[in-house]
């Protein structure tokens, strides 16, 4: 009995002395022009959320799509944030300087068989007549090999690995949005295999954001059936 009491007491003390995991939030503007009001609201929201948790507020410049970036816009955004008293806690991460990290991640995906080259043009995909909530759903034309006489232009990730009539239907990805509540999406039928490296050689946002969140230690609030969901999704 005493042993259990001591263990229980030590256990609660240990819990009380263990530091809480540090909250790390980020704001990631795209330098395609001056910081507009909607983005400033998002910046204030993420800043206050980080400070409420005595956490770290990070800044990431989403200058991945270099042809769309406006010269001087990134510096202008930083000056605007500073003028509003929004000071970031670590060095600014520029996606335009992260190509090596994205290439390494893509190589890992290639090695695991999770990606494949795709020869399709936008028009071919748009004409496929498969449409989801976010636009055309990739019909899987190149999933089992590029059509004869064509060349791979982009790299796609398989929304479902090793699908066959004998494997179970994919379960939806579910997460809890702080404002909109429970969000659920079945990737395979609603989006399809998605691009991680574009035909123009640029890495897609979907790859970069995951690599950068892991690099900067920003957690993703993603739940999944069978795993414990965030408290607000437990209804
Ligand atoms: Zn294709």
List keywords for this structure.
235 residues, alpha+beta, Rossmann fold, 3-stranded parallel sheet, 3-stranded antiparallel sheet, 7 helices, 17% strand, disordered N terminus, disordered C terminus, binds zinc ion
Describe the protein in words.
The protein is built from 7 helices and 11 strands. The chain is 33% helix and 17% strand. The protein has a 3-stranded parallel beta sheet. It is an alpha+beta fold and 235 residues long. It is globular, with a radius of gyration of 22 Å. The model is unreliable at 1-14 and 221-235 (pLDDT under 50). The protein folds into 2 domains: 20-97, 3-Layer(aba) Sandwich (Rossmann fold); 100-235, HUPs (Rossmann fold), CATH 3.40.50.620. Residues 118-120, 141-142 line the site of zinc ion.
Task: Please summarize what this structure is.
The protein is of the alpha+beta class and about 240 residues long.
- How far apart the termini lie comes to 38 Å
The radius of gyration computed from the alpha-carbon positions, rounded to a whole number of angstroms, is 22 Å
Q: Looking at CATH, which topology of the largest domain would you report?
A: Rossmann fold
Strand-pairing-aware structural class: alpha+beta
Summarize the helices and strands and which ones pair or pack.
Blueprint: H1 2-17, E1 24-27, H2 37-52, E2 56-61, H3 73-83, E3 93-94, H4 99-111, E4 115-118, H5 122-126, E5 131-132, E6 135-136, E7 154-157, E8 173-177, E9 181-185, H6 187-190, E10 194-197, H7 205-216, E11 222-223
Parallel strand pairs: 1-2, 2-3
Antiparallel strand pairs: 4-7, 5-6, 7-10, 8-9, 8-11
The protein binds zinc ion.
